[in-house]
From TrEMBL:
SUPFAM superfamilies: Amidase signature (AS) enzymes. Residues 46-444 form the Amidase domain. This is Allophanate hydrolase. The keyword Zinc does not apply. It comes from mine drainage metagenome. Its EC number is 3.5.1.54. Keywords: Hydrolase. InterPro entries: Allophanate_hydrolase, Amidase, Amidase_dom, AS_sf. One of its GO terms (molecular function) is allophanate hydrolase activity.
């Protein structure tokens, strides 16, 4: 089934499809088995039909996500369904939806279920869960990426049109790269985190996985908005920094012109993968074909910032988020997760202030790059690992996967991961484009142009991109 939003919307508007019919077909196609460990709690047919039937007296033209099925990472609240954060003993059943979930339902979207994740959203691998390691949508021996593991694989396998993840260190981008999806990490505060189990509260954001960048833009439009209940929610400014908005707010195809920063060759890391360097160069050429100009930049301030996230005291935020639980029930936590979060106790208040001073200096230093480029382009991840490899070296593998992702929220950037090619073994490869805060729409415009410039398939479905 083609679940691209524009395709489903056309069927609804023509009267060829009703939400209840889609839900019945989707339920049958997903089935009752879950060999890839995608779901923690999938809604049953009757539960999904409740949402579908509420739509059928409404006009599809009035709701931008009318009848569109979506999955929800299980650290985000869906009313009446337990939120576990992949820890059964932590589970609670919320009485109301997370703000972002409510916005999507109000726009017509239909929840399909709650998805598996690295416990407490701590990891980029998708293996740190008592509900099982989520398997890659292309090859079950490989990791799905995490922490938003099930959210990505559910979309890639055609079980949902889009899904919600969270992204603190790369959890909304690495799984996108490994499953041939678009993963948009919004500006922090653009989407409410009310009703989301925090990882690092000052850095968390709700992310979007979708089959296309156009779909992600459609979802973002409905999901965003200031929320007074979220202390970290931010109003979108009425006027953006002019450079990127001017460069990207155009039609693409050779007439446009924008500059993109690329790390120096010696600053790129592919972790002994023989194929991904060439795939990254291919992606650069794709950007140049639609009007981009590559500019070499010094990437060292970004890499130094990335190291702060787990090597510095920010890991203490993860401890603070579940302090009562980890102190009262330490044995309920997945071993690798407990080791990482438990390490927070070694940091002092002095360490925290010193790290804040260092971050401030790095923010100033890295900001200078925006005088020379409109956006920055990196691989989303330099390589991908087998599940067995991650189990053997969980910390090292995870650290390698965060090389290009961990700095984003510390530097207050918006970012979009997009698929750009495949390795010879059939596993996907992708890049991430990033820019200063609140340039989300412009990044998705560019990602849409990139997808439209070459033939693309949707996730792991084998269905071709429907260009609109």
């Amino acid at each position: 089934m083609n679940l691209q939003i524009s395709h489903l919307r056309g069927l609804y508007l023509s009267g060829a499809l009703k939400p209840s019919d889609l839900v019945k077909q989707l339920d049958a196609e997903i089935g009752g088995e879950d060999p890839r460990h995608i779901w923690i709690r999938r809604l049953n047919l009757n539960e999904m039909l409740t949402y579908a039937q509420e739509l059928e007296g409404k006009n599809p033209a009035d709701l931008p996500l009318y009848g569109i099925p979506f999955a929800i990472k299980d650290n985000i609240d869906l009313a009446g369904i337990p939120t576990t954060a992949a820890c059964p003993e932590y589970a609670y059943t919320p009485e109301k939806n997370a703000t972002v979930v409510q916005k999507l339902i109000d726009a017509g979207a239909i929840p399909v279920g709650k998805t598996n994740l690295d416990q407490f959203a701590t990891g980029l691998v998708g293996t740190r869960s008592p509900y099982g390691a989520t398997q890659n949508s292309f090859d079950t021996e490989y990791i799905s990426g995490g922490s938003s593991a099930g959210s990505a694989v559910s979309v890639a396998l055609g079980m949902a049109s889009f899904s919600l993840g969270t992204d603190t260190a790369g959890s909304g981008r690495v799984p996108a790269a490994f499953n041939n999806l678009v993963g948009h990490k919004p500006t922090c505060g653009l989407l409410s985190t009310q009703g989301v189990v925090p990882a690092c509260r000052t850095l968390d954001c709700v992310s979007i996985f979708s089959l296309t960048a156009q779909d992600a833009a459609t979802v973002l439009e409905s999901a965003q908005g200031f929320d007074a209940e979220d202390a970290y929610s931010r109003d979108k400014p009425s006027v953006l920094t002019p450079t990127l908005a001017t460069a990207l707010d155009k039609d693409f195809g050779g007439a446009s012109s924008f500059s993109f920063g690329v790390p120096r060759k010696e600053q790129l890391a592919f972790f002994d993968n023989p194929e991904t360097p060439a795939l990254f160069q291919q992606a650069i050429q794709q950007l140049e074909s639609i009007g981009g100009k590559a500019v070499e930049i010094d990437f060292s301030p970004f890499l130094e910032t990335a190291r702060l996230l787990y090597e510095g005291p920010w890991v203490a935020e993860r401890y603070a988020a579940i302090q009562e639980f980890i102190e009262n029930k330490p044995d309920a936590i997945f071993p690798v997760t407990k080791k990482i979060i438990g390490g927070a106790t070694k940091f002092s208040a002095v360490d925290t202030y010193n790290a804040q001073y260092k971050l401030k200096a790095l923010q100033r230093k890295s900001a200078a790059v925006w005088n020379d480029v409109d956006l920055i382009v990196t691989p989303t991840a330099g390589t991908i690992y087998k599940i067995d490899e991650v189990n053997a070296e969980p910390v090292i593998c995870n650290s390698n996967l965060g090389y290009y992702t961990n700095f984003m929220n510390l530097l207050d950037l918006s970012a979009t991961a997009m698929p750009t090619g495949f390795q010879s073994n059939g596993l996907p490869f992708g890049i991430t484009i990033c820019a200063p805060a609140f340039n989300d729409a412009q990044l998705l415009t560019l990602a849409t142009a990139m997808q439209g410039a070459t033939d693309k398939t949707l996730g792991a479905t084998g269905i071709s991109l429907q260009k609109c």
